[in-house]
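TA notes, week 10

Several of you asked for a full example with nothing omitted. So below is the full record: structure tokens for the whole chain, then the designed sequence directly under it. When grading your own attempts, check the secondary structure regions first.
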């Protein structure tokens, strides 16, 4: 109930074992009842919800608290914030896609004019050393 954006994403999460009830993986068709505590793993954190009631049909976001209670510990939310903050700060060089700056430097290096100027400057430096 509004934990995932679409039903397809929710179904895929169930099939991947990311939705559990008392440590047991749920199938997408599993019926839940009031009082059930469901764990939903959405990396990097695990949300915990208690089913309060079963909705008769689809409902708006404002009505969700009447049917679902969020029991997720504050430590999980702190973990999420830490991940957001440190996501790009701790990126090691060579991991992931090149940055825009890296791409520009590579394309400049590949251009003939840049390479020619580089080698010409380098040859001039060698001539000065011979003097």
């Amino acid at each position: 109930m509004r934990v995932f954006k679409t039903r397809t994403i929710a179904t895929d999460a169930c099939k991947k074992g990311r939705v559990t009830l008392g440590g047991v993986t749920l199938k997408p068709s599993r019926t839940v009842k009031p009082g059930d505590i469901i764990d939903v793993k959405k990396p990097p954190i695990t949300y915990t919800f208690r089913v309060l009631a079963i909705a008769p049909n689809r409902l708006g976001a404002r009505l969700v608290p009447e049917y679902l209670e969020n029991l997720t510990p504050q430590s999980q939310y702190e973990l999420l914030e830490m991940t957001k903050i440190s996501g790009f700060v701790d990126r090691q060089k060579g991991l992931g896609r090149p940055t825009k700056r890296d791409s520009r430097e590579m394309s400049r290096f590949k251009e003939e004019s840049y390479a020619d100027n580089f080698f010409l400057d380098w040859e001039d430096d060698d001539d000065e050393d011979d003097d």
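The CA atoms of residues 13 and 107 lie 41 Å apart. Use that as a sanity check on your answer.
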